[in-house]
Structures are given as C-alpha cells and as structure tokens.
C-alpha cells in the first residue's frame, strides 16, 4: 500500500502543472544572460548556444524579437514566447544554431512608429525614414558584432518576431537587407513602401490571425501584397480561427524551422 501511495505521489509530482512549469523555467536557463553596451546604452539579451558548441565550427544565427508585453529590464520576460521552440530537444538536434532574444526596455519599441491606442485594432504610422529607436539601433549593432564572429554562418542569419517584434522584423530587414537570409514576422505590420530593397532578396513567411483585434491582419496582408508587387514571393498564412496570439499555431507549424533553416543567401 505504501508503494502505491508513493507511486501516486511521484506521478502527481512529475505530471502536475507546477512541476511542468518548473521544468520549463529550468530549461530556459540554457539561455545565458548577456549584455551589449554601446556608449551609455545597454541592451539586455539571452543567448542559446547549440549543444556541444565548438568555436571551430560554424552555426546559423537566429534573432528573435518579442512583443510589447515582454518589454522590461529583467532579461527574462522576453523568453515567454518562442524560447520553447528552440529549446525543443528534437529541434536542437536537427537545427543546431545560436539564438538571440534581446529585451526591449519598457518605454521603448522595436519599430519607429506612432501608435494610436484609442482605436481597436491599434492604428500605426510607421516612420522608417527617421533614425531607428534606441532598442533597434542597439540590436542592429549587436547583430553587426555577432556576424563578425568566425563561428557564425553569415549566409544563414535569420530574424523572426511577434506583434511588436513582427513589426521590428519588417523594419530590421528594411534597414539591413544584406544581413538576413529569411524572416518570419508574426501578427505584425510595416510600411508597404519600404519593401523594395528586400522583396526579391529575402524569403518571408508571414503569419497573422484573421480575428486579430489588436494588430489588424490587413497590415500583414498589405505587406504581403507590397512584396508581391515588388517582385517578391512571400509565403503567407492567415489563420481563420486565431486572434492576436497567432504565434501559438505558428510555433506549432511542423515545417516552420525546416523552412527557415533551408534558406541561405
């Protein structure tokens, strides 16, 4: 009887939500805490290295830009969405890569824009003709530094992001079209007039939820249309059932990382 009780306790401990959450938090510790300092500004970021990382070998580099809700200075919240995708054991074995999750400060934004939050969905006015935000400038500087490392495959540098990070994804490939081999913007948007310098160079897989009442799905549709008009061939997925959290079905796409890592410059 005592053995049965013990087994029940162990089963509950292993499969309880609390235990699962603890396991997830523990696995996120594989992302080292890093800091990129440029003059008086500091960018906090987390970095995941491949299993058995070897500086004499070369690896793809993935930049992941989080959403507005994960802004801050704890160097932790930015791992809330997307980190599990790269911590998945099968993915780590199949797609060894260096993955970077920078954290945007609370009062900053990835994309240079004005947001009217009195409307639903929110209305955005993009200002790519101006200097980038501090967070974006620091991130671009970090990426410039990373691609000089001998262990980075410079023909396999990727960017993906969700919501605010989806907007940052569209903007960073506009500002640095020569850097990226592919991009995945999720429930984001951008300036359709900005696509000409990357439309025919960078493969994109764009995602959005048709029911999104935070970021209008028409923003992604307009970007896809602009890329088509500029001679590009974007891959586009619109989930008829999804609201703003379209990153959940996106991360469940079985071919997502296969598609991403298949792209080279």
Descriptive overview:
The protein is α/β, with parallel strands linked by helices. The protein has two domains: 1-30; 31-261, Alpha/Beta hydrolase fold, catalytic domain (Rossmann fold), CATH 3.40.50.1820. The chain has helices at 2-15, 17-28, 83-87, 89-94, 134-146, 164-175, 217-229, 247-251, 256-261; strands at residues 32-38, 41-48, 59-65, 98-103, 113-116, 123-126, 152-162, 182-186, 205-209, 235-239. The strands form three sheets. Strands 1-2-4-3-7-8 form a six-stranded mixed β-sheet. The longest helix has 14 residues, at 2-15. The protein is globular and about 50 Å long. The relative contact order is 0.13. The model is unreliable at 8-14 (pLDDT under 50).
Strand order of the largest sheet: 1-2-4-3-7-8
Secondary-structure class: alpha/beta
Low-confidence stretches: 8-14
CATH architecture of the largest domain: 3-Layer(aba) Sandwich
């Amino acid at each position: 009887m005592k053995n049965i009780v013990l087994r029940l306790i162990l089963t509950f401990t292993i499969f309880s939500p609390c235990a699962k959450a603890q396991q997830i938090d523990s696995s996120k510790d594989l992302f080292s805490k890093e800091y990129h300092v440029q003059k008086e500004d500091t960018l906090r970021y987390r970095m995941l290295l491949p299993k058995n990382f070897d500086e004499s070998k070369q690896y793809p580099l993935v930049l992941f830009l989080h959403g507005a809700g994960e802004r801050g200075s704890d160097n932790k919240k930015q791992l809330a969405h997307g980190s599990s995708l790269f911590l998945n054991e099968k993915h780590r074995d199949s797609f060894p890569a260096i993955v970077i999750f920078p954290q945007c400060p609370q009062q900053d934004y990835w994309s240079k824009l004005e947001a009217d939050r009195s409307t639903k969905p929110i209305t955005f006015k993009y200002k790519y003709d101006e200097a980038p935000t501090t967070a974006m400038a620091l991130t671009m500087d970090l990426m410039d530094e990373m691609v000089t490392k001998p262990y980075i495959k410079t023909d396999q540098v990727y960017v993906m992001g969700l919501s605010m990070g989806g907007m940052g994804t569209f903007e960073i490939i506009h500002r640095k079209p020569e850097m990226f081999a592919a991009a995945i913007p999720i429930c984001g948007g951008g300036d359709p007039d900005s696509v000409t310098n990357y439309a025919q160079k960078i493969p994109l897989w764009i995602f959005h939820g048709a029911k999104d009442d935070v970021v209008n799905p028409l923003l992604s549709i307009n970007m896809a249309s602009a890329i088509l008009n500029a001679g590009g061939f974007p891959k586009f997925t619109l989930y008829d059932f999804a609201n703003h959290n379209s990153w959940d079905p996106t991360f469940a796409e079985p071919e997502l990382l296969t598609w991403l890592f298949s792209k080279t410059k």
